[in-house]
Amino acid sequence: MSGLEVRLTARGGRPPPGRHVLARIAFHTLPETAKPPADGVVLPLAALDADPERPATDELWCVGDRVERRCGDGLWLAQSREFTFGCLHVPPPAGADYSNAIASLYERLLAELAASPHPYPLKIWHYLPAINRGAGDDENYRRFCAGRDRALRAVAPHLLPLPAATAIGIPNDGLPLTVYWLAAARPGVNVENPRQTSAWHYPREYGPASPNFSRGTLLSGNGLFLISGTASVVGHSSRHPGDSAAQSAEMFANLGALLEAAGLAGRATPGCLRIYLRDRASWPDVARRLAESPWHDWPIRPLHGEICRAELMVEIDGVAAGS
Ligand code: 3EB
């Protein structure tokens, strides 16, 4: 394996010598006005940064060999010998159409995978407008889960359970529904968290279709570990509703248990993390817990994003590398 690595750089930063950008994820404080970079995509969430000296960053996904790109019709695709990075975006769907919009988006994603030399997803990121709008089973997140589940069972049941994922709400109504994914010629190794019920076994109370994702995915032969969105969920229930400080402590306990399950306890080298905050004002609470955690010196980017359950205030995801 030539190795995939992920790092934070300044805006427009170059990859290390001899490496190539597979995908640049650009974080902006005002994503609605940002111009997409030629070699990547804009994350549709506002980057929080109290420090004006460190205003902008890009997350660079780098590989050792040449990258080819194509784009058009809401699709952006980058391909190296070993990996494909794809991104699809569509206008925000309205009301009851949410699950249909997600099912068609997923059918397109699955068709791209099936036609690609890299048919196995390793992680799928979802940024969803109005994620908590609607009550009970009509909440958009539940409709999203139903649409994803329907498309998968119809088109690609062999991909179940899906690898690592993130699903976060876009607070700004004007930004498109954005899904992007990393894929390879062979599947990764999925890892579950012993503190948490597997998402595909969540009971009926969380919606008509369970979420399809694994807690994390290890890339075979590479050492990179892709961490799913991890929140203050123990078993299947949300802990410390509305309390961002207590939720942060629970979230870090979950992250520690997941890294241990992946065989990375005490061996993980700084990768790249993102923290999603429902409420920008809770960053000091979360930052305090981060400072007390084993990840205090990892590159990290706080972002303004909504968590899929209304009572959850904070979530973390990212990449760790084995030492
Ligand atoms: C959870 O533990 C939090 O539906 O793809 C995290 C990561 C969450 C991915 C998804 C949802 C998803 O249930 C929510």
Tell me about this structure.
By secondary structure, the chain is an alpha+beta fold. Helices cover 19% and strands 36% of the residues. The longest helix has 18 residues, at 244-261. 3-(2-carboxyethyl)benzoic acid binds at residues 165-167, 199, 211, 213, 228-229, 231, 233, 308.
Helix content: 10-25%
- Biggest sheet descriptor: 10 strands, mixed
Strand order of the largest sheet: 1-4-2-3-17-16-18-13-12-11
Ends distance: 16 Å
Element pattern in H and E = EEEEEEEHEHEEEEEEEHEHEE
**Which distinct ligands sit in these coordinates?**
3-(2-carboxyethyl)benzoic acid
Structural class: alpha+beta
Q: For the residues shown, what is the average pLDDT?
A: 94
In short:
The protein is an alpha+beta fold.
List the helices and strands and how they pair.
Layout: E1 5-10, E2 20-28, E3 40-47, E4 57-63, E5 68-72, E6 75-79, E7 83-90, H1 98-114, E8 120-129, H2 140-155, E9 164-170, E10 177-184, E11 189-191, E12 216-218, E13 224-231, E14 233-234, E15 237-238, H3 244-261, E16 268-277, H4 283-291, E17 300-304, E18 314-322
Parallel strand pairs: 2-3, 8-9, 16-17
Antiparallel strand pairs: 1-4, 2-4, 3-17, 5-6, 6-7, 7-10, 8-10, 11-12, 12-13, 13-18, 14-15, 16-18
The structure holds 3-(2-carboxyethyl)benzoic acid.
